[in-house]
Design goal:
The complex is a heterodimer of chains A (259) and B (420).
Chain A lengths: L1 H24 L19 H13 L25 H9 L2 E4 L8 E4 L13 H7 L18 H9 L16 E2 L7 E2 L20 H16 L3 H30 L7
Antiparallel strand pairs in A: 1-2, 3-4
Helix pairs in contact in A: 2-6, 5-6
Chain B lengths: L10 H9 L2 H10 L1 E3 L8 H22 L7 H10 L4 H29 L7 H23 L4 H12 L8 H9 L6 H30 L18 E3 H26 L29 H9 L3 H13 L4 H4 L11 H22 L4 H28 L10 H5 L5 H11 L1
Antiparallel strand pairs in B: 1-2
Classes of the chains: A mainly alpha (259), B mainly alpha (420).
Chain lengths: 259, 420
């Protein structure tokens, strides 16, 4: 037995050493308090509206958002712009429509039912304009990255000068949170880059948090409904379980077996 | 099936039942004598039925909105998530439901392993169960391909490519499976068709699984045959129905937690990136429930032998009733088997863990040792153990261990050993 334990502890030690070093290689992401986490997590309306502003003024020049429509901006659980505001936002974009009765394509102001206008005609055009790298569509970006919101939030603040010994090619930047540390996107944010319409001070940290919150919403537009419904469903199930438990006890009291 | 003849009380009922004995069947199902000492590990059969029905109902609903086309599949899933009423709920139930289904089936299988439920006279139930398990894996794998994300595409590529290991005809088979020269639209449409078909095959097999179960009746934690009906049994309704319901509700709480609070934790982030045949993900990993077999596949250096090892790891289970030579069913009375059982559980968990890690260095070594042990357990340990192990005396009835023995206990045991 003693020998067995000694061998077992050796094996565990043996296994644990590379595991801990594997874990150490993982970068610690920057943390912040997300309002949408937890049982009752909800979006911060202000952050969503500011996040939309960051997206549209900074990110949207390269990154598409192809699964969202302008109507989503005024829907419940989102940034909740008023319908008038959402209409105005939509109308500020030119949408290609057609063909008309003459067989011609034409441009018109956007409507609520339109999808977000794409920054480029197609993937090739996007690559050509960005040194060969395709700026990924942002609709579900948060769910498409291992670290989720923490990763995006960190990445936006992770631009640094490369450590000595690392040379970067033309058009490549160093980011300590990027997989492989090399990123084609240049640092998109700087303090005071945009002027928030609600007067919030536009620091890099603030903008990162706001735009990441916005991206969480674009990836999970029904998150608030999900949390609310989930809480009700689980409370309901717990109450029902308790009732069924006592019914079961009652029924099984007729036989001497314990349940 | 039932031991006693059943006659409906109403005249109409009798008229109908004489022509189609559905009422006799219903009566059999409610009266079905069940050992009264079944513990909560036995509630997973009912839970699995619930899982199957849930997957079928949510799956039918999803199929009304999903588009099986390489250019539209990913978008149609986003359409379900955003614009279909409660589409996000239905999809998250379906996606997490697959994981819950496998969680339940693994508990169900390991319960069977612990209590020797696969032994005579229940071999057919067990083998049907293994076929159901194989079909579940096929359905789950093809279902994971349907959203047409990066993991869908590359998982499909890796798994279908396994068939190329077959000598001579392998490449031809892969082309035939793909419906072309790479995983593409024809692959997606046929996977969708099969993903839709398989659950109904499973449903049919589940009926056979339960039918075969109702011939000898349930095994039980003591693992002895019980007289039916007797003091050792209770009717299925209401006793087992209420107990299964209680267990199912607890299971549903866990299920609901995943669906409502961490719906994506069991999936891979890469599957929210649309499939791109030109970009290979850094690590291609299958869903968690396939990881132990994936580890076995990768632990063998040769491709063909790896595929054979992986398939054997599952098929060896079908031979289990004959590999396990012990006459005693329940591990409760098999002190040595009990220890080897837990080592096997640990072994499978280790395989699952290394299956998720890159196949290199220490992970590969661990995977190889664990794979070797897996086969050692079934091919050597079990047959030898059954012949060598000194088992504990088994009780004569279920009531005996519960009542803590009677005055006649010693005489009963003497009688039993003299019969042997």
């Amino acid at each position: 037995m003693k020998n067995f334990l000694r061998i077992l502890s050796l094996v565990i030690l043996f296994l644990a050493t590379p595991l801990s070093s594997y874990a150490a290689e993982k970068v610690e992401y920057l943390k912040t308090d997300w309002s949408f986490k937890g049982l009752f997590g909800k979006f911060d309306r202000g952050a969503l509206q500011r996040g939309y502003q960051v997206y549209t003024e900074v990110c949207a020049s390269c990154h598409s958002m192809k699964y969202l429509s302008y109507r989503n901006l005024s829907e419940k659980g989102g940034p909740e712009f008023t319908e008038q505001q959402a209409k105005a936002i939509a109308a500020s974009f030119d949408v290609t429509d057609g063909p008309n009765s003459d067989g011609e394509m034409f441009t018109r102001p956007g409507k609520l039912s339109d999808k977000f206008v794409m920054p480029y005609e197609n993937v090739k055009a996007a690559q050509a304009a960005n040194g060969g790298a395709y700026p990924p569509d942002m609709s579900v970006l948060v769910k498409a990255r291992g670290g989720g919101v923490d990763y995006i939030y960190s990445l936006l603040q992770g631009y640094e000068d490369p450590p000595v010994g690392i040379t970067l090619d033309e058009g490549v930047h160093y980011n300590k949170y990027m997989y492989g540390n090399k990123i084609k996107m240049s640092n998109p944010l700087s303090d005071g880059l945009i002027e928030y319409s609600d007067g919030t001070n536009a620091t890099v940290e603030q903008m990162s948090k706001d735009v990441t919150t916005f991206l969480m919403w674009t990836a999970e537009p029904h998150l608030e409904t999900r949390h609310q419904m989930g809480f009700k469903a689980i409370v309901y199930l717990i109450i029902l379980t308790i009732l069924v438990y006592f019914s079961m006890k009652r029924i099984w009291s007729r036989v001497e077996t314990k349940v | 099936m039932s031991d006693h003849e059943y006659t409906p009380t109403s005249k109409a009922g009798k008229w109908f039942n004489d022509r189609l004995p559905l009422l006799t069947l219903a009566n059999h199902l409610t009266d079905y004598p069940t050992p009264k000492n079944l513990n909560y590990w036995w509630t997973f059969g009912g839970i699995l039925t619930f899982c199957l029905i849930t997957q079928i109902v949510t799956g039918l609903t999803l199929a009304m909105h999903y588009i099986a086309h390489a250019d539209m599949a990913f978008e149609s899933v986003e359409h379900i998530m955003r614009d279909v009423n409660y589409g996000w709920l239905i999809r998250y139930i379906h996606a997490n439901g697959a994981s819950m289904f496998f969680l339940a089936v693994y508990i169900h299988i390991f319960r069977s392993l612990f209590y020797g439920s696969y032994k005579a006279p229940r071999e057919i139930i067990w083998i049907i169960g293994i076929i159901i398990y194989l079909l579940m894996m096929a359905a789950a794998f093809m279902g994971y391909v349907l959203p047409w994300g990066q993991m869908s595409f590359w998982g499909a590529t890796v798994i279908t490519n396994l068939f190329s290991a077959i000598p001579l005809v392998g490449e031809g088979i892969v082309t035939w499976l793909w419906g072309g020269y790479s995983v593409d639209n024809p692959t997606l449409t046929r996977f969708f068709t099969l993903h839709y078909l398989i659950p109904f095959l499973i449903l049919g097999l589940v009926v056979l699984h339960i039918w075969a179960l109702h011939v000898p009746g349930n095994n039980n934690p003591v693992g002895i045959d019980v007289k039916k009906p007797s003091k050792d049994t209770v009717p299925f309704h209401p006793y087992i129905v209420i107990k299964d319901t209680f267990a199912l509700l607890m299971f549903m709480i866990v299920f609901a937690f995943f669906v409502f609070y961490t719906p994506n934790i069991l999936g891979h982030a890469d599957n929210y990136i649309e499939a791109d045949p030109l970009v290979t993900p850094a690590h291609i990993v299958p869903e968690w429930y396939l990881l132990p077999f994936y580890a076995i596949l990768r632990s063998v250096p040769d491709k063909l032998l790896g595929v054979i090892a992986m398939l054997s790891a599952i098929l060896i289970l079908a031979a289990l009733p004959w590999l396990d030579t012990s006459k005693i069913r329940s591990a409760v009375f098999r002190p040595l088997y009990k220890q080897f059982y837990w080592i096997l559980v640990a072994d499978v968990l280790i395989l699952g863990y290394v299956g998720a890690m890159p196949a290199e260095g220490l992970y590969l070594l661990v995977a190889r040792v664990a794979t070797a042990y897996y086969f050692l357990h079934f091919l050597v340990i079990l047959p030898v153990l059954g012949l060598k192990e000194k088992t504990l005396p088994i009780p004569l009835s279920i009531t005996e261990p519960i009542l803590g023995g009677t005055a006649n206990l010693a005489t009963a045991r003497n009688k039993e050993s003299s019969i042997k």
